[in-house]
Amino acid sequence: MPQEWDARNQIYHVAARCPHIRLPVDAVPERRIQVFGYLDEHLLHLAQKDVSLAQLKGILKWTLEGIASLHELDISCNDIKTDNMLIQIRTGTSSIEAEQVLITDLEDAIHLGPGGVPKGAPLGNIVWRNPEAHVEGPMGTLSDIFAFGSICIYVVTKMLIFAVNNPDSSEDDKLGTVLFRRMSYFADEIGFQGLL
């Protein structure tokens, strides 16, 4: 899907009503550059630190509120992943406490419209992408929820259960490994046949 300047700006314009969404603070239109505010941390890194489960649950709650607010406006993010969950850490405390959580990188986001579910574009990161998108199936709000569920597993277990750790693997090998892991964790016979 083309990442067109006007379409991206329209997504951000509509998303301005949503809580927990990182919006541009400035832009350089002639260069098609958007400028965003800085936040301290992202969830991929923060979840590996000594953070209480209560804090992590709070971060996940804020993230889900952001996703839900996009879905209420028929916007599918299509790139929900831990390093797109930015966190501002509260300063002056002895423990790590989240002050703000924002979903960033809406460049793959699309406005679905009534009943709209795009197909054919495997958007988002291979580790967090829903199984249907890997085989050019439908993407939409359920894709975001699948990715969010995968994030919850990571935050609680501190394991990237779908990650491919071999940097020498080809993209096809990585995809095969990710799909195999998805099926081994979640598939039943009906789901497997549906994927085929």
Automatic annotation (TrEMBL):
<dbReference type="InterPro" id="IPR011009">
    <property type="entry name" value="Kinase-like_dom_sf"/>
</dbReference>
<feature type="domain" description="Protein kinase">
    <location>
        <begin position="1"/>
        <end position="196"/>
    </location>
</feature>
<dbReference type="InterPro" id="IPR000719">
    <property type="entry name" value="Prot_kinase_dom"/>
</dbReference>
<dbReference type="GO" id="GO:0005524">
    <property type="term" value="F:ATP binding"/>
</dbReference>
<dbReference type="Pfam" id="PF00069">
    <property type="entry name" value="Pkinase"/>
</dbReference>
<dbReference type="GO" id="GO:0004672">
    <property type="term" value="F:protein kinase activity"/>
</dbReference>
<protein>
    <recommendedName>
        <fullName>Protein kinase domain-containing protein</fullName>
    </recommendedName>
</protein>
